[in-house]
Design brief:
Blueprint (H helix, E strand, L loop, with lengths): L18 H19 L26 H10 L14 H6 L8 E6 L2 E6 L17 E3 L7 E5 L3 E5 L13 E6 L2 E6 L4 E6 L1
Parallel strand pairs: 2-3, 3-5
Antiparallel strand pairs: 1-2, 4-5, 6-7, 7-8
Length: 193
C-alpha cells in the first residue's frame, strides 16, 4: 500500500471504561497503524471530557468487563438474541451465542418469538400465530400488552438505560410465569403466560 502524502489531523474518542491500560494500548495500536503508512508528527491527549451529548448514556460506574465476567459465569443459564448494537466482537468475549436475530421458545401451549425489536416489533410483526407472544426489549420500556388475536407483547425494560422514566429492570421467565424485577430482585409485575 502506498504511503499517503499530505498532512492530516485525526481525532478519536475512546470510551473511558477501557481503563488506563486499555486506553494506552489503543493509543499505541493507533500510533503503529499511522506509522506503518506515514509519519506521526504529534499526539495531543485531551484527557477525559464530558461530551456535549451522550453517545450512549451509560450510567456512571458501568463496568462492561465485570458484566462480561458475570454473564460468562452464567453461560449455561442464559438465552440471548442479537441487539442493534451487538457485533462479532461481542461474541468474541462471551462464552455463549449472542448473534441470533431471533429465537422461538415453547411456553405451555404458546410460542414466544424472542427478538431485540429493532427489526420485528408491534409495527412490523414477525410471523405469529393467534396466541403467540412477541418478546423484545428495543424500546427499553417495560410492557405487557395484549394485541392481535390473543397475542401478547412483552418487554423486559432495561438494566442499564431505561427509557420514559421507567425503573432499571429486567424480566425472568420461570416455567410459564413472567416476572418483571427491579435491580434489587423485587418482582413488581407478574404474569401467567
Amino acid at each position: 500500500m502506498a504511503k499517503i502524502s499530505g498532512k492530516y489531523e485525526i481525532v478519536y474518542i475512546i470510551d473511558p471504561a477501557q481503563g488506563e491500560e486499555g486506553i494506552a494500548a489503543l493509543v499505541e495500536k493507533f500510533k503503529a497503524m499511522v506509522e506503518a503508512e506515514g509519519t506521526l508528527t504529534s499526539i495531543e491527549e485531551w484527557g477525559k471530557r464530558r461530551l456535549a451529548y451522550p453517545i450512549n448514556d451509560l450510567p456512571e460506574g458501568y463496568a462492561p468487563k465485570e458484566v462480561l465476567a458475570m454473564l460468562n459465569e452464567r453461560k449455561d443459564r442464559i438465552f440471548c438474541v442479537r441487539g442493534n448494537c451487538d457485533a462479532e466482537v461481542d461474541q468474541m468475549v462471551l462464552n455463549f451465542p449472542v448473534l441470533a436475530d431471533y429465537a422461538v421458545l415453547p411456553v405451555g401451549q404458546r410460542l414466544v418469538y424472542v427478538t431485540h425489536g429493532h427489526v420485528f416489533n408491534l409495527n412490523h410483526l414477525p410471523p405469529l400465530a393467534p396466541g403467540d407472544i412477541l418478546l423484545h426489549g428495543h424500546t427499553h420500556v417495560p410492557a405487557w400488552t395484549n394485541f392481535g388475536q390473543g397475542n401478547l407483547y412483552l418487554n423486559p425494560g432495561s438494566v442499564s438505560i431505561p427509557k420514559e422514566n421507567t425503573a432499571h429492570s429486567y424480566m425472568t421467565l420461570e416455567g410459564s410465569t413472567a416476572c418483571w424485577k427491579t435491580m434489587e430482585g423485587v418482582c413488581y409485575h407478574q404474569l401467567q403466560l
